[in-house]
Design brief:
Layout: E1 6-15, E2 26-38, E3 43-55, E4 58-70, E5 77-86, E6 89-100, E7 103-113, E8 116-125, E9 133-142, H1 146-151, E10 157-169, E11 175-188, E12 191-201
Antiparallel strand pairs: 1-2, 2-3, 3-4, 4-5, 5-6, 6-7, 7-8, 8-9, 9-10, 10-11, 11-12
């Protein structure tokens, strides 16, 4: 029984030579975890740094992660930052949220992979009878698909796309979505075209 107990815990993971993960990996990996507070709901802080990691034919370099989560089991406050490179493409993540009632208010949610950037903001409620529901907006912009195509092993892919989504709670409590995709130029294996599409409804509307 952890009720009434408090903890102050520090843990470290250290891999001084990443070559143990396989040929091509080098440098070191360091990760530090600090947990403090009520044993059933401690505040958590994680910091990690890495050298060069090669796995599944991909190279991840200079990973830096700093994350803090307060009261994760009840009313989480989240602040996380990460950066690095994968196959010479910059990657980054920024997440900041705070409790709002029983939900989490996502004040900042940004992820970037090379030229592609995803932004989201809104309210995440995981307590609804129909499951988790996000009320807010999301946008994905990729002005140049060629670097992403090379990363995915599709060197013939090029062009650009934009995706915008408005997300809400449907009258029946389900996740509702209104999504618009605009790809004014798509190139694959030498064939060029354009794509525009919309989707609106709930997951139940998509059921076969």
């Amino acid at each position: 029984n952890l009720a009434g107990q408090t903890i102050a815990l520090d843990a470290r993971v250290s891999v001084p030579d990443l070559s143990v993960l396989g040929a091509g990996s080098e440098g070191a990996l360091e990760a530090d975890l600090h947990a403090e507070g009520p044993a059933s709901n401690p505040d958590l802080t994680l910091q990690a740094r890495s050298g060069r990691i090669e796995a599944a034919g991909r190279v991840l370099e200079r990973l830096v992660l700093d994350a803090t989560v307060k009261q994760p089991a009840s009313a989480p406050t989240v602040d996380a930052r990460a950066s690095g490179e994968i196959e010479n493409l910059p990657i980054s993540l920024a997440v900041r949220g705070r409790p709002q009632g029983q939900a989490l208010r996502l004040e900042e949610g940004v992820a970037q992979l090379g030229p592609a950037r995803l932004e989201a903001a809104g309210l995440l409620d995981t307590t609804g009878p129909a499951g988790s529901v996000f009320e807010g907006t999301a946008r994905l912009g990729a002005p140049d698909l060629a670097p992403l195509g090379r990363l995915a092993g599709q060197p013939g892919l090029a062009g650009r796309l934009d995706l915008e989504a408005s997300l809400d709670r449907a009258p029946n409590g389900e996740q509702a979505f209104d999504v618009r995709l605009d790809a004014p130029r798509l190139v694959y294996a030498g064939t060029e075209g354009a794509l525009r599409a919309t989707a609106k409804g709930t997951p139940s509307d998509l059921a076969w």
